[in-house]
Design brief:
- The structure is a single chain.
- By secondary structure, the protein is mainly beta.
- The chain folds into 5 domains: about 70 residues; about 80 residues, no CATH class; about 70 residues, Immunoglobulin-like, CATH 2.60.40; about 110 residues, Sandwich (Immunoglobulin-like), CATH 2.60.40.10; about 150 residues, no CATH class.
- The chain has 2 helices and 44 strands.
- Strands 31, 32, 35, 36, 38, 41, 42 and 44 form an 8-stranded mixed beta sheet that branches. Strands 7-8-5-12-10 form a 5-stranded mixed beta sheet, with no helix packed on it. The protein has a 5-stranded mixed beta sheet with strand order 15-13-20-17-18, with no helix packed on it.
- It is elongated, with a radius of gyration of 47 Å.
- The protein starts with a helix and ends with a helix.
- The N terminus is likely disordered.
Amino acid sequence: MKRNYLKTKRCFLFLVVVSAFCMPAAAFAGNATYSYDVYDRVERAAYDNGPVVEYSYDTAGNLAGKTVISNVLHVSTASGGGTVSSSGGADCGRGCYFFNTPTMVTLTALPDVGRQVTGWSEAACGTNLTCAVNVDSMKHVTVTFTTETFTLNPISATNGNIDPDTAQTVNYGSSMAFTMMPDEGYILGDVLINGAPAGAINPYTFTNVTAACNIQPSFVADPVTLSAETLDFGTLECGTTSATQTVTVSNTGSVDRVIGTVGLTSGAAAEYALVSDTCSNITLAPWASCNVDIQFSPAYKWSARVTMLTFPYTDDYIADKSIELTGNGGDTCAGDMSVILPVLYAVLSVGNITVNAGEGGAIIQAGGDTYNIVPHADYEILDVIVDGSPEGPLSSYTFTDLYEDHTLQATFYSLMVSSKGSVNRIEGTNTLEILPDSGYVVKDVLIDGISLGPVTTYTFEDTSSSYTVEVLFEVDAAWIMTIFKIILE
């Protein structure tokens, strides 16, 4: 009996091969998935992207017939990230379903966590989770899964801004931060997430995003107030100190405010002193206050010895608070920066202005924010350099903003010119033109003692230094010979 069975099996396999060759090759393109009966005989072959073939046998185990089923539905996913189930049909393996008669089938996409359907090959199904397919022939349906995305939508508010301020699309499980930026005089009061208060968190970061959200800041007036906007100490003589004036800082709000180190910035900061300070580096509780005491001791005569007293917040997104301090130096004080600097690169710092006068001249304060550049005898102004930028041979310069640091530098060149010629600076340039008198020529030009030979022009390539220019002329021998010839004739 066993022998007959094996013989039958061999015959069956032969018949399967023969029958396969008898069918159109295109119908059996691709690999096949086989199903076997209890006698280990092939009862079904489901071809990838092709039909399903069912085999039947007689009582002796011989192949009795085959049926080709063309109502087959092949389902696949384009990029993974989920599975698909069918509402009916016989499972022929690997996303294959077959039907003996035309059948309407509903496919259901089952995305993995964080994935979404972005399309079916059946156009009418769009991005729906289900797709109805009429399996009346060979059908191939593909569903595409992609990472799920959500929109984080910032909502604008008065008295401040949010950054970014446009809707942001983020992937499932990702993070996104929004920064609240109050206008001057305001602070962040709260952050609303989908309308619910989340607290004054800045920046606010969405983590592990799994849904769309709205975010809206609310800004409120800064509850920290100063007792004055300006303090004027009047006019004092140099060497004297003013009476103490006090600035009180108060928190009129309902939340703590953290104050950094109180300090004097810009202007004539060196002439003011904080003699008492209970405000630096503290947490100012609601309805609490602190004080800073200031004194003024002028060093120069000037109509506005200005500086700023600043109360910084540790929150980078809130503008610091400042008040302006003013005072005057009396008539007995020296003129501000009225100091002649005859040595090369002598430096004087007053307030936030640093002046450098090269050898051969001086920088003298002329009143207010104006400074005169004065060359010594036998010197000319080479260049005036303001904040590192050459401005040319100016005789004076006026600063317009003393709340920024500035540098003022002047360089000079001396002219030692022998008789019988002259030296002129070509207007608008750094070039000297050397002009001998009639009957004379240039003998030599020396820059800081270094001979350049009988050149007739010289350009200062570097105007950040002072120079000594020496020009020598001599009689033009050719001119003498010409004169002799005229006399002899």
